[in-house]
Amino acid sequence: MTDDPAALIATMGARARAAAAVLARATTDAKRAGLRAATETIREDAAAILAANARDVAAGEAAGLSGAMLDRLRLDEGRLAAIADAVEAVAGLDDPVGAEIDRRERPNGLVLARVRVPIGVIGIVFESRPNVTVDAAALCVMSGNAAILRGGSEARDSNAALHAAFVRGLARAGLPGEAVQLVPTADRAVVGAMLAAAGVIDLVIPRGGKGLVARVQAEARVPVLAHLDGINHVYVDGAADPAMAEAVVVDAKMRRTGVCGAMETLLVDRAFPGLPALVGRLVATGCAVRGDPVALALAPGVMTAADDADWDTEYLDAICSVAVVAGVEQAIDHIARHGSHHTDAIVTEDTVVAERFLNEVDSAIVLWNASTQFADGGEFGLGAEIGIATGRLHARGPVALEGLTTYKWVGRGAGQVRG
Amino acid sequence: MTDDPAALIATMGARARAAAAVLARATTDAKRAGLRAATETIREDAAAILAANARDVAAGEAAGLSGAMLDRLRLDEGRLAAIADAVEAVAGLDDPVGAEIDRRERPNGLVLARVRVPIGVIGIVFESRPNVTVDAAALCVMSGNAAILRGGSEARDSNAALHAAFVRGLARAGLPGEAVQLVPTADRAVVGAMLAAAGVIDLVIPRGGKGLVARVQAEARVPVLAHLDGINHVYVDGAADPAMAEAVVVDAKMRRTGVCGAMETLLVDRAFPGLPALVGRLVATGCAVRGDPVALALAPGVMTAADDADWDTEYLDAICSVAVVAGVEQAIDHIARHGSHHTDAIVTEDTVVAERFLNEVDSAIVLWNASTQFADGGEFGLGAEIGIATGRLHARGPVALEGLTTYKWVGRGAGQVRG
What we know:
The structure is a homodimer. Chain A is α/β, with parallel strands linked by helices. The first copy, chain A, has 14 helices and 16 strands. Chain A has helices at residues 5-25, 28-44, 46-62, 67-73, 77-91, 131-142, 156-172, 189-195, 210-219, 242-254, 275-284, 293-298, 328-338, 351-360; strands at 100-105, 111-118, 121-126, 146-150, 180-182, 203-207, 232-236, 263-269, 288-291, 304-305, 319-325, 343-347, 365-370, 387-389, 397-399, 405-416. Chain A is globular. Chain A starts with a helix and ends with a strand. At the A-B interface, helix 1, helix 10, helix 14, strand 13 and strand 16 of A face helix 1, helix 10, helix 14, strand 13 and strand 16 of B.
C-alpha cells in the first residue's frame, strides 16, 4: 500500500509539469532524436526486458492468469522488436505542435492566430499489455506532453524494464526523463488519486477492458478520452450490391472479433433480397447468428432467436445479432437506440440514402460501403493512435497526435487598447 | 422543492435530445429563419417581458438584493432591444455545422472527411442577468444544439417571459420549441441533477460568479467549459515603448475593472525605466496599487505594500498589484505560478523576447503589445461568445459557435474490407 496516493501523484505531477514545459518548447528534431534514442535503448536492453517479462509471465502462471491474459502479457523477440519499431514510426510522424490552425487580422490591426500546443500532463491507465507503456510514451513525447503511466500489476517488471530503457533513451538525447514517469506501485488507490487530480493531470486515457474504462469514466474528476463499448452496426440497404454486402459484413464481423471496431449487429432492409445468403456466409465462417422474428422467418434453421438484450450487447466474439428493418430511417432509429456512438456503416448503391445515413447517424465514425474494422488510427492515416474516443468533446474516433494537442490564441499588436 | 430532480432532467433531456436531432439536420437558412422569428417575437412581447421583469425587480428589492444585482437583473426598453438585436446578429453569423475540417483519400480508395456536427444537448446554468437566457439560446440554436437553461430564481419571471417569446419564434419558423427548454423550478437540487446527467447533457456551461463556477467545476460529472479566475498579467519589458506601456496598462486595468479580461497584476522589468510614471498613471486614473518591495522603493509614496495573497487575487476592482522582475524569464515564471491561464500580455519592442513570451506563457490567450481587455469573442471576430474557457480540452479562450460543435469522421468507400 502507498501511504498517501494523492501526495505521490502530486509529486509525480509537479515533476511532469516541469518536464512538460521543456517538451512543449522542444523542436520537432529534438523530439524525434529522443524517440530514436529510445528505440535504440529498447533494442539494447532486449535481454533484460525479456528476462523481466519472463518473471511476470511466471508469476502470472503461478497466480492462475487466463491464457488470453498471459498471451497479452508475453513478449518475445518479435514482439519486442515491433515495440521498438513502433517508437521509430512515431518519430517519423508529422509534429502537430506549433501549427497555426487559423489566422485573422482584426480591423484594428491586431493579428490573432490559433496555434496548436500540447495538452500538458496525460495520465494513461492500462492493463496487462506492456507494449502500451512504450506506445503511449512515444505518442505523448512526440505531441509535447508529459505522461504518467500506471500499468497493471501483472506486467510490473516488464513495464519497469521498458520504462527504464525508454527514459534512458530520452536522457541520451537531452530530453528530461521525467517526461515519462511510471507509477511505482500496484496500489489501486493510486488510480483513484490520478482520477481525482484535477489541475495536476490534464487528461486521463484508459487502455484496457470495459471494467477499467467504466471505473475511470465513473470516478474521474479530470477529462477522459475513451470508449466503453463498440456496439457497431452494418446496415444493408435494399439498394446494396449483394456481393459487396457479403464481403463488408463478413469482414466487419469476422476479420477480428475481439476488436472495438467489430460489427455486433447486422441490420437488413426488408427490401434487400439477399438476407439468407448473407446470414449463410456468416454462419459458414463460424459465426453464431441471433435473429429477430422476421430474420428467423426469412432464413429458417440457421439462427437462434435474439432476445431484447442482444441489441445492446457487445459480443467481442463470433456472435452476431440480425434485425430486419423497413428502410434507412428505421435503421438510423435502431442505431440511435442501441448503438454506442463508435462506428456504424451502410452498404448501398443509393447515394441519397447513403448521405442520409452518414448525416443522421450520430457516431464518431460513419462509413459508406466499407467495413467497420477500418476504425483504427493507422487505417485512417493518422499514424499510431492512443485510443478511440466515443465522447463528444475535444476528439472523436481514432485519437492520434493531433488529439493530444489543444490550442492557444496568440495575438500580435502595435499597442492596441480596447478604449 | 422538486420531487425528483433527476427525473425532471431525464425528461427534459430526452425531449432535448429529440429536438437536437432535428436541429442537427436543419439547414443554415432554417436556423436563421428561426432566430429571426425569435427576434420578432421578443420585440412583440416587449411589454409583457418588461412587466415580468418589473415583478422580479420588485421582489428583488423586497428581498434586499444588492444594487449591483438589481442592476444586472433590470431590463428597460433599450436593454430589451439590445437582447433582440443580439439574436438577429447571431442569425447572421457563419454556420459551422457541416463544414469539412479535413479530407484524405487512403491508398485503398477510402475517402475520409472530418465534418463539424453539433455537440448535442448543452446545459447552461446562470445567475441574475436575464439576457443570458436569450444569448445562450441563440448560440445553441445556430450551432444546432438543444439547450437546457437554468437561470437564477431572482430572474424567474423575466426568464420565463423571454423564453416563451423565444420558443414561440422558433415554432413560428417550424423549429421545435423543445430545442430550448427552461428549468421550471428554482430548486437548487436541479442544478445538481444537471451536473450529474452524464449521457443526457453533453456539456455544461456556467455563466455567473465564482461561487457558481466553482460549484459546477467541483460537482460536474459532465464536461464543463468555463473559467474560474481571470488573474491576468501585463509584463512591461525593458525594451517596451513607455507611451505604449502606459496606454496598454491603463486600458488593461481600468477600461472596465469587473470583467474577466482585466489585468490584475502588473509585472515590470527592472530594466524598464518608466515604472514611476506607469504607476503614477494608474494612481491618477483612480487605481489603488500594491507593490512588492522593489516597486515600493522605485516609486515611493504612491503604493501600499502587497502581501503574498495579492499575487493570487482577482480583484475585479480598481486595484492592481505590481512586481518588479529580472526580465522575461522571471515574468513567465511568475505567471506560471500565479496566473489562471486566461489572458496575459507583454509590451516590448523586442521581437525575440515577445515570441518567447507568446510561446512559453501557458494561457488560453497571449498578447503582444495589446490590452488584455481584448479577451472577448466579439473583439476576436467570432461574433457573440458563450463564454471564455480556461480548461485545456476542446476549446480555449472565447468560445463561440465553432466551440459549440464537435466533429465526426465520414468515410466513403467502394466496398473496402480490412481483410
